[in-house]
Records
---
Amino acid sequence: MRKRLIVSAASALSLFLAVPASATDFQPGAAGAGDSYYPTYGNGGYRVSHYDIRLKYQPATDELEGTTTILATATENLSRFNLDFALNVQEVRVNGRPATFATSGEQELEITPARPLAKGGQATVVVRYKGVPSTVKKYGFTAWLRTPDGAVAAGEPESAWWWFPSNDHPSDKATFDVSVQVPDGNQVISNGILTGATSQAGWTRYSWRENKPQATYLATLAVGKFDVTTDTTPSGLPVYNAYSKDLGENADAARASVERTGELVDWLSGYFGDYPFSSVGGYVPNVKTGFALETQTRVFYSPRQFARGTNTSVVVHELAHQWYGDSVSVSHWSDIWLNEGFARYAQFLWSEHENEGTAQELADYVYASHPADDAFWSVKPGDPGAADQFSNAVYDRGAVAIQALRNAVGDDAFFRILKGWPAEHRYGNATVQDFQAYAEKISGKKLGDLFTTWLFTAAKPATGPAPAGAASLAPGADAGRADGQLPVEPKSWKKIQETNSLHDAEH
Ligand SMILES: [Zn+2]
């Protein structure tokens, strides 16, 4: 009875307060960016231009507190909008006024500003929060990796939720300022340029700036005790590398690999054009996981990548992503071949440069070593599905597809495509279809059949990626194997495969 009375009163009140017709145009923004692989990742109704992330972190207890300020522009009339985030939120302000907020789903933070946001209007969103990120599990895992002396945030496709609220989808890129206070004696690594490190009352604040658009999953953070090396490349690009002090017997192999970053970025520039960012480097924290990740300008490497000695191949792979993945980012996660196919192909080119097997030999080897009934061929690199987004086929078959393209258009057009593409879409986003159109424009050839065969068919192509005028490998690697036709394993093959734990995602 009491309840009914309250309901009636509320209904009467809402009638009485009926809003003007124009205000009904204000609707909640979507809870996802429209990505079919990850429907709730990212959000709709606004774009972010900048993240200012200001944190305080205590390595001993893993306690993180922070304030993130987001500069956004509404792309529709918004009564409400979402961010993606996993820690506990204390306060949200939008354009200075306190906003109400609620959580829903795994990582949705629903924000209702005091005044609705009009399409085209700017919003400054301030979120205050704290938590112990390593204890927060979403979809059964945490991308916050604890180390003996601190922690690391690195993961694909999700890692932001554990340290800053965001529109967590690569289609919405922004610049970043990351400023983190840690107890004196600890260091903070992030993307871009270190703009300051000042100590006060026992705490040191490190400030980093990435001044070029960056996808949220490419933002990284590490706190710990590191040996740092700095230098500039011959072209004047600042290099900043960092190695955890407790890497043990992997320390020297890690250094002997990552210290070649400047050389390798210059070498890759010969194929991909000018390096797109204002700094470069890598860091090797003492994590247990085995993968590496192309975090923008500052690559994350697991020490396990160097457990069997130096590995320049993985450095080449992650640096290639700075063009293919970081500067030119996927529009949807289904476009992952634009990242991994090309990063793997860069390893093929490095192998060729090192006289450890040509790209053609590697492509032939991949083609022949997987029989037609191997599940490898059931994955379509051009649209692998979320479950197979980081499967070997996206990398290896993806790179063979690029060799097939090279053979179809010839070296001259191929290398113009390889270098022209990152310039065409610099700091932006693109789809596999955009790439096909670009390759057709540059080569003057119709490539629909080639793309369908190598990227969009769940079966082994009938013939291998043969160069013009050469006989292709016998159809069906089963036959190839039985006849002893399996090509000799290229010298670089094992090292290339060792990088396959690159994205052994936690889920
Ligand atoms: Zn990769």
---
Amino acid sequence: MPRDYENQAPTAFQRRPHLTQDDNWIRAFLKEAKIGHIASAIDGQPFLNPTMFWLDEENHQIVFHSNVAGRVRSNIESNPRVSLEASEFGKFLPSNVALEFSLQFRSAVIFGTARVVTDPVEARRLMYSLISKYFPKLTAGKEYREITDKELRATSIYALKIESWSGKENWAERADQSDEWTPLDEKWFE
Ligand SMILES: Cc1cc2nc3c(=O)[nH]c(=O)nc-3n(C[C@H](O)[C@H](O)[C@H](O)COP(=O)(O)OP(=O)(O)OC[C@H]3O[C@@H](n4cnc5c(N)ncnc54)[C@H](O)[C@@H]3O)c2cc1C
């Protein structure tokens, strides 16, 4: 029977508690994770958008951007409630029973409210910080041109205020195996 989730926080009841990670782990993971998927929704239709992002630790928010005209902007303006997922994976993990096939993974899921950053000073600061995550050695005004007013008008910079988050990691060397079936040959684990 599915659980009754009415009036429960979106991060409640993580199904495998031993894989659940704490706030420090989530923070460290989000600082390193490269790609996030922003979920927005309008008229009951969910949308996913892959994006670069930056964890602004000081303000407990996620910064990302899109073009000025587009679904992400339009959806968020109509409904600022969003979610973001980021993950990475390692080895694929075989098993001798179907439902134990797995992979090494670590991931975080965030729930919160996004706003379009309209103050140009704040927008530039956040945009430069986002760029620095991916290109820490490049500086605005040195290797690349500073953001012009026209460029700023053509983009949307968002600040996603984090309301709740969860982290999960399964980096086991092997998936569970059953002793009620012939063991897998070692070659499958190579
Ligand atoms: C790994 C990755 C990282 C990215 N990082 C950024 C980033 O940091 N900033 C940025 O502005 N863009 C980034 N993009 C592109 C981004 O996913 C969107 O295409 C872009 O932000 C425009 O979104 P939109 O909703 O305004 O597009 P719209 O063109 O308005 O979207 C309309 C429809 O087009 C389709 N669509 C839009 N984007 C995609 C897509 N990526 N793949 C397939 N279908 C799509 C969907 O059906 C969507 O509903 C990234 C893409 C990838 C794959």
